[in-house]
Amino acid sequence: MNELVQQSPEFRALWADQDVGVRRDERKRILHPTVGMLDLNCLSLFSEDSRQRLLWFTPRAGTGTAEKLALLTVVGTQAMHTEPVR
Fold it and tell me: pLDDT tens, position by position, for the chain (86 residues)?
């Protein structure tokens, strides 16, 4: 950062302003090994002192992600029983 301040007058001016924007929502894509690609909206909620952040994920409409998330509630809960060989 010091190098940028020293070498770039534009960066130095922007850095001095400390005018920082916070992105509170964005799109996330997560590849799950069982159900495939999950398209999610991600909302960031910050505590008053900004020391803590809560990420709130919701499925993006029209992507099939809601159905995949519902499937995840049962994936891995099934017990596979086999009959002993006689």
Answer: 788 888 898 888 888 887 766 666 789 999 999 999 999 999 988 888 889 989 999 999 999 999 999 999 988 777 766 777 66
HEC string for the chain? CHHHHHHCHHHHHHHHHCCCCCCCEEEEEEEECCCEEEEEEEEEEECCCCCCEEEEEEECCCCCHHHHHHHHCCCCCCCCCCCCCC
Q: What is the largest CA-CA distance in the chain?
A: 82
